[in-house]
Amino acid sequence: MGSVSLKIGDGTARFKRATLCSSALNILMLISVITTNLFALYAFTYSPKDREIHSLNRTHKNISLISEQVSLILREIDASQKKLAQMEKEILGYESIDLSRSNVANELKLFLQRHPLPLGKDSKSGITEMVASVGHSCEKSMDLLSQYMNYKVSGPCPDDWSLAQKLILHGCEPLPRRRCLAKSVPKVGLQPFPKSLWKPVSDKIVMWSGLGCKNFQCLNSKKLGRDCVGCFDLVNGFENQRFVKARGKNDFPIDDVLALTSGGIRIGFDIGGGSGTFAARMAEKNVTVITSTLNIDAPFSEFIAARGLFPLFLSLDHRFPFYDNVFDLVHASSGLDIGGKPEKLEFLMFDIDRILRAGGLLWLDNFYCANDEKKKALTRLIERFGFKKLKWVIGEKSESGKSEVYLSAVLQKPVRG
Ligand SMILES: *[C@@H]1O[C@H](CO)[C@@H](O)[C@H](O)[C@H]1NC(C)=O
Ligand SMILES: *[C@@H]1O[C@H](CO)[C@@H](O)[C@H](O)[C@H]1NC(C)=O
Ligand SMILES: *[C@@H]1O[C@H](CO)[C@@H](O)[C@H](O)[C@H]1NC(C)=O
């Protein structure tokens, strides 16, 4: 009771509603703090004058007894201070972010300030205050967060998107809003859609700050990950053939996948979609695809946007900001492998299942399985959802002499009772 989260899901700061229950708790805690201190004071001032006043050797006053009492009192004070700080945090409304700290940027305090609803309690939601949300893990990166929130109000923001991304990667997601103007780049020479899908993007219209490479030529000479080898080169190389031509049995052409259902694939979500080529090919089929991406080592978001596609700047640790059962298709490749305990992948898979509609397709595209155990665990997990296996291919590729196992599958979400 009394706990309300405006944005449901993890990564959201929660606040306590001032209910009868929580104020009673606060009073109880206050009383307990006062009584423990009174006991300590009594012990400190107590002298045995009633009983042994005559044998009292004043020069022999037991020093160790006193120091024992003093340390007891100090412990009590320390504990009381901790209790008070906890109560203060609860009163401020943030259980995990300590806004009372001295190094917290004022802008952060202002952003997180609770705003009482002008007409009092809202009868529909039951809330009395509006609260801005910020990732609870921001607490672990308070120094970085304070640096991020340190700017001139209404002035230009510091050129610090890489700091923002660093915070996101530390679990500080969502980030707080800021009241400064983000650095902008003149987007000259943007092509009209659909011509934009395959036109090379000029180096000049994306931001290169915080990146090792300063142009696309440099990026194309690097392997940026399993799903992005030369993926910014839309003219040469393989990028413009992906999803059209198959390099092996693990590659499914888009036409083959769309033919598996009798239409009805209109909107999709591509997880970790590189430079947006999947969305581009789907756009040619009149399917709207949102591509989730962070700017790890490359300006993915701006590149995707320049192609006339929708980039979603979101880490895979964040609950997908979509309602249940909305997508006709979810496409994911090795980017899905977020490592860690098996539960981590489970949380992600359940979230994918949630946003996919019944009859919708989950396309696992060249999902890299580090070993046979990983492949078996993934297979077991997929089978738990009861998806219909429309396509299922386990293939091996030889990468620099070492054979690697990949799973490609098209799975259909069942109608569940
Ligand atoms: C009080 O303490 C002093 C110093 O230790 C000692 O000499 C003296 O005998 C003590 N007196 C009594 C009454 O215990
Ligand atoms: C003080 O009191 C404790 C027990 O209450 C005793 O063990 C200790 O020896 C005393 N110290 C002196 C200096 O009298
Ligand atoms: C996409 O939509 C346009 C306009 O409605 C239409 O002309 C075109 O044939 C469609 N393309 C496909 C592949 O369905």
Automatic annotation (TrEMBL):
Keywords: Coiled coil, Glycoprotein, Membrane, Methyltransferase, Signal-anchor, Transferase, Transmembrane, Transmembrane helix. The keyword Nuclease does not apply. The chain crosses the membrane at residues 24-44. This is S-adenosyl-L-methionine-dependent methyltransferase. The keyword Membrane applies. It holds the Pfam family Methyltransf_29. It is found in: Endomembrane system; Membrane. InterPro entries: Prob_Methyltransferase, Put_SAM_MeTrfase, SAM-dependent_MTases_sf. It comes from Citrullus colocynthis (colocynth). Residues 70-97 form a coiled coil. It is a single-pass membrane protein; Single-pass type II membrane protein. Belongs to the methyltransferase superfamily. The lineage of its organism: Eukaryota, Viridiplantae, Streptophyta, Embryophyta, Tracheophyta.
